[in-house]
């Protein structure tokens, strides 16, 4: 605050671009849109390039932007001791922070076929899936059914309950992260069933999206997360 | 209750029928495309009606009016299974009838006077309705509604509507993504403005307001 007051208006406007650094100076970590590790069209025909581009550049970017705004407002409110503003911001933080968290996982949950997308999980995760769901087909059927039945917007998840040491399938509403369903839940695979995730390609037929998305699910990533959590 | 009487007398008596909009599917172009109407009415709305029929078959809800099902399955927010299909069937018929070709803009007469009374100006109402529609997170609806002799703006999640919250619905905009994604993709604010400027049927709103007032006074 003291540093800002000695700066002229021109200097301040020139510093607008580095506002995230100023925020960083005051201790707020802001967020940026992560790059995709594949081209927008690389998941075709399961998910169209048009959807991937809008989903990443518009929807996820908006969550990041709004999350950063909410965090800046939160920081100010905390510094001022403005308790009611702090509380009022919780839904913006949950929506937009959750949107950022969930989509960041989602991009890693997907991979082009030539990078292993759709290849069934092997090793420990493959074994655990067979144990808990009978087979990969059994898991896929359950997740697809729960994803199709979800009313409104949300996600269907394969998670690991770290405490109970078992795999679970669950859904969350809107942009609620999986951890809101249980503090010991670690997301392994999340499938976005908000309409924006499939509408331009699959229209109202969410079950067709859910049938096809498995062809680009990156089980290698899910296995890495599973094995690191199981240590 | 007043709402139950109102629901019984409301113009939306879908009762498991997929009623076509009061205009052809291309009549709202260029503001809402024929393709959107084909999917939104022809697939989404149709599915709610068809699935409701299957769902209530053989249950104690079978043969009950749509309004009865909605009010009896809301269960204070702990929704019973038939709520989603029933409420969405109701909401969508109400939505088609909230629009008309050549609609939108500022109303006149009694409706304008009431908007000015309860919102200070049409512009303030416009901003409030816009904000509600833009900030309903995830799927849902924004409404102009009437309760306790006052107009108010409301927003509801998923299939919830003002009937279950003790208010008379007068106008709605669907903000589920399927309502605007083909025409506007992620640009919900543009969709809302287009709806307000070009699609709202103030005639429908007026006649619903008259019915709401009549129902209120008859129960006074």
Count, helices of chain A: 11
Spatial extent as radius of gyration of chain A: 20 Å
What oligomeric arrangement do these chains adopt?
A: heterodimer
String of helices and strands of chain B: HHHHHHEEEHHH
Low-confidence stretches of chain B: 9-14
Q: What is the tally of beta strands of chain A? A: 3
Q: Which band does the percent of strand residues of chain A land in?
A: 5-15%
Largest sheet of chain A: 3 strands, antiparallel
Instruction: Trace the largest sheet of chain B across and list its strands.
Output: 2-1-3
Q: What is the mean pLDDT of chain A?
A: 91
Family (chain A): Belongs to the iron/manganese superoxide dismutase family.
Catalytic activity (chain A): 2 superoxide + 2 H(+) = H2O2 + O2
Subcellular location (chain A): Mitochondrion matrix
Keywords (chain A): Manganese, Metal-binding, Mitochondrion, Oxidoreductase
What distinguishing features does this structure have?
heterodimer; A: 231 residues; mainly alpha; minor pseudopilin epsh fold; 3-stranded antiparallel β-sheet; 3 strands; 10% strand; globular; B: 220 residues; 9 helices; 50% helix; Mn/Fe_SOD_C (chain A); manganese (chain A); oxidoreductase (chain A)
